[in-house]
Amino acid sequence: MIVAGIWVCYGVPSFFLVIFFLFFLGKPEFKYSFYRVLQCDMTINILCYLNTWISRLYHIETTIPFMIWVHDNAYFVFRVYRFFVNYYHSAQSLSVIIMAAHRFWSSKSTSSNRFWSVYYGHVYLGLAVTSVILTIPNVFLGLYAVDYYDRETGVFVINRLTADKVILGNFTLMTKSLIFFAIIFVLSISTLYLLQKRFPYQTSSLQVKTMMKNLTTIAFMNSFLFFVVLLWPIIISIFVTLSGEFQYNAIMFLSDVLSLSLPYILMAFDKNVQTTMSKMMDSWGPRVQHSGSFTMQRRSNFL
User: Fold this and answer.
1) Which residue ranges run through the membrane (predicted)?
2) Which of 37, 47, 154, 17 is nearest to 99 (CA)?
3) Is 187 in contact with 109 (CB distance < 8 Å)?
């Protein structure tokens, strides 16, 4: 129950913050095509986060009876959850690659914004199809097993794979993760090089220098965060023997970091977001004061 309380304390506010930013980035101030890409990425993150709660519900004592009913009457829900675990691994990875590719192309060509503004939806449709294609081999090779309810022990347990399938599954996951990370890293480094070549520091305005600094920070943060989230559990498991419960909680936390962190990154490093939020909060100030004055006036009239 303590772990569930932690999930709720940081997860629920962050989840609603992601939803807020999904609509917030639709404001006229965010016309640049990169924000459309961010909105698509947030949509994927929202769906991924919601999918994890199918598993969390049968790890929380108070919701286990309900999940037993689901297990007995709608077991396909467990199969769908396991499929989408693999699906969103690829989808989130490819989305980070798309963001890196957008930055790379934007630093290389002035016409990139026109392309992304029109075809960002087509790009993410391709992402959805590609993620399915990357997930299907795991299904046919049986590289993951669906959890089930063990009535003898009275708990939900992991349906263990054979040793050969575990090795093959880890190898497949590691290979895909390394390929994804390598692509993101190369695109990020190339973007920084092109930006420095296009806008030399000694000739850049303060605005351009600020943009380069922010982009540098966000590029390396995305790559580093992706690396930690996707590879840390595997690397740790190679050198350290961890309990199943600890591994599960660690994976859930790292998944949440990848799914819920984007609004915080934007608030910390995106000047456009900071400026727009500041103006929005300033506009709320007079409304709050006016509402307070109106309420006091009504009370005075009543008295």
Assistant:
1) 7-26, 87-105, 117-146, 178-195, 215-240, 246-269
2) 37
3) no
Classify 156 as helix, strand or coil: strand
Measured distance CA(101)–CA(92) in Å, rounded: 14
Q: Which of 30-39, 142-151, 257-266, 286-295 has the lowest average pLDDT?
A: 286-295
> How far is the C-alpha of 124 from the C-alpha of 129, rounded, in Å?
9
Structure tokens at 277: 């939020």
Q: How far apart, in Å, are the Cα atoms of 62 and each of 11, 68, 150?
A: 18, 11, 17
What is the spatial distance between Cα 31 and Cα 275, in angstroms, rounded to a whole number?
15
Count of beta carbons in the 10 Å neighbourhood of residue 210: 12
For the chain, domain boundaries: 2-282
User: CA-to-CA distance for 222 and 45, rounded, in angstroms?
Assistant: 14
Q: Find all residues with CB under 8 Å of 73, minimum gap 6, and list them.
A: none
* Euclidean distance between CA atoms 156 and 154, whole angstroms: 7
Alpha carbon 39 to its chain centroid, in Å, reads 11
Q: Is 0.70 surpassed by the pTM of this model? A: yes
d(CA 229, CA 181): 11
Which CATH superfamily does the domain covering 2-282 fall into? Rhodopsin 7-helix transmembrane proteins (1.20.1070.10)
Q: Which amino acid is at 124?
A: Y
Position of tokens 């990357």?
134
User: Based on the number of CB atoms within 10 Å of its own CB, is 298 exposed (0-12), middle (13-18) or buried (19 or more)?
Assistant: exposed
pLDDT band, very low/low/confident/very high, at 290 (cuts 50, 70, 90): low
Q: Say if residue 208's pLDDT is above 70.
A: no
Tell me the β-bridge partners of 157.
Answer: 148
Residue written as token pair 């930690």 = 228
What is the reported pLDDT for 234? Answer: 60
Q: Hey, what amino acid is at 80?
A: V
Answer yes or no: are the C-beta atoms of 181 and 227 closer than 8 Å: yes
Measured CA to CA, the distance from residue 188 to residue 220 in angstroms comes to 7
